[in-house]
Amino acid sequence: MAFVLQRWKILLVLNIIAVAGFMSFWTKCSSSRPAIPANSHSNVKRQSRYNLTIQRSSISHETLLKRLASLEDVVYRQLNGLSKSLGLIEGFGGRGTGGLPETLSPAEEANAKYLREKYGYNAYLSNKISLDRSIPDFRPSKCKKTTYPRDLPQISLIFIFVNEALSVILRSVHSAVNHTPAHLLKEIILVDDNSDDGQLKAPLEEYMSRRYPGLVKIVRNRKWEGLIRARIEGWKVATGEVTGFFDAHVEFTPSWAEPVLARIKGDRSRIILPSIDNIKHETFALEHYENSGHGYDWQLWCKYINPPKEWWDKGDVAAPIRTPAMIGCSFVAHREYFGELGLLDDGMDVYGGENIELGIRVWLCGGSMEVLPCSRVAHMARMKKPYHSDIAFPRPTQCPACGRSLDG
Ligand SMILES: [Mn+2]
């Protein structure tokens, strides 16, 4: 009997709690919009506080809508691609994936001629290849097993261009972002050396501000400066501890940045050159170049050179290769150290001289220059360059770093 009484007591208490809870919920709901008489002072204060709450709630509502809109934008970009409005393609897969050769259909070929002559490469095909396509990983196998510390200096990537095809510039930027760890990528700087192509003005700016908000700076030269001074203009606005200089017709590969930044962290006076592979200008196929340094002949033409015997004797094909010269389409230097070296000679108008001049400068100043087989960047050698119709003129004949003539 006592047991049954106890059960009843428990049930009664539970019922009272449930009813009390329901009543308090009902009271709260019905008082959510209280009727307040207007002529009481304290009630006016209460009313204004109430209005403020309403206002606050409306602001947060707006913020919420903005966030939803931006989320919608992200989803739109993922599904349709921001580049679609430019007639370009984002995402993985599609034509030219894996760096395989691609060709145009006869119908496409009819439209390709004009762009090929304008840019010195098959720009029509470039527009049909995804900005995010993959390319082969040509690193020696040892590099793929190497690990690097997370704590490396940040890099500013500087791309220079004049009247380059938009899809080629965007692919350079996409592959840089895709293959550089986010915590190491300080910014991307695009230096426009006074292009007259309308696509490289507002459409480029709008794309970058929406696709990579806050990451990309665009520098516009008011007159044609040439690629040396264009690189220097990019360096002036860079804020990363390290600066990387690239043509805007390159594609990066996985883990290209870590070995470079680790070597510069070890010694800031090293100028580092990723190994270069070739993007064929007609098919956009990738061509593997063997490990090599950079030298030059008596006419000061830069050329690939086989690494010295002692390098091969060490039996480590992943080791850095010390090199007397460089290739200007892709080099990385500690930002402040590069300034201390005197940057590049701003008296040079066309390409080629810097490859030799900076090599002489850095070796004379106690630094060094090396190629890294573990860092690979693919570069497209164009059929023609926009800088001068005759690239043999004018050739560099002076070496300011040495204070003497180089024309022998
Ligand atoms: Mn180039």
From TrEMBL:
Cellular component, GO annotation: Golgi apparatus
Assigned keywords, A-Z: Disulfide bond, Membrane, Transmembrane, Transmembrane helix
InterPro entries in the cross-refs: Glyco_trans_2-like, Nucleotide-diphossugar_trans
A biological-process GO annotation: protein O-linked glycosylation
Protein's name in the database: Glycosyltransferase 2-like domain-containing protein
Origin organism lineage: Eukaryota, Metazoa, Chordata, Craniata, Vertebrata
Annotated ranges, domain Glycosyltransferase 2-like: 156-338
Entries under Pfam families matching the protein: Glycos_transf_2
An MF annotation (GO) of this entry: polypeptide N-acetylgalactosaminyltransferase activity
Transmembrane segments: 7-26
Highest taxon of the lineage: Eukaryota
PANTHER family assigned: N-ACETYLGALACTOSAMINYLTRANSFERASE, POLYPEPTIDE N-ACETYLGALACTOSAMINYLTRANSFERASE 17
